[in-house]
Amino acid sequence: MINKQKVRNAIPGLGLIFLLIGVVVYLQVTDERNKELEESVRLAMKKESVEEIDLSRFTDFDWKQAYLFPPYTPQENINRQLGINYKDPSRIDMRDDINLLIFLNKNKVVQYAEISREYGDLVIDTDDGLSPSNATLTIKKH
User: How confident is the model at residue 119 (pLDDT cuts 50, 70, 90)?
Assistant: First the structure.
């Protein structure tokens, strides 16, 4: 016969296990940082002969707009530029070692990349951001 007291004691533990599994799955699904893109751009910037980068060559996901934010950009400016509320996980407002590249699709952030300033800065010639058909970034070497 099943001991009802043991079953009652086990239910909260099982609930906690399912909650933890759900949190882990949620965190993995919402991780939008693209470290492969960061490394690809870093290696391209490292080459002395490279003066421009075509982002469309480095992206294998769907995006409609991309925006570049320099060091110390306030959160409010990011939200205004993107046209949505987005909590910047990189904390670019307090950093001077990266440029932040954010990709949107259907008014939602789909990827972001923290681009190291080790080999220079990236520059976009427009405030309107980039599109897959116009995805050229200029490298300003230090």
Answer: very high
What is the identity of the amino acid at 63? W
Q: H or E stretch including 29? A: helix 4-29
What tokens were used for 106? 């259907």
67-105 pLDDT, tens per residue?
Answer: 999 999 999 999 999 999 999 999 999 999 999 999 999
The model's pTM is 0.78
Distance between CA atoms of residues 126 and 65, nearest Å: 12
Residue closest to 37 by CA, chosen among 142, 126, 134, 135: 135
Domain residue spans in the chain? 1-31, 33-140
Q: How far apart are the first and last CA of the chain?
A: 76
CA gap 26, 80 in Å, rounded = 27
- CA-wise closest residue to 85 among 104, 61, 113, 63: 104
Q: How far is CA 136 from CA 97, 110, 124, in A?
A: 21, 19, 8
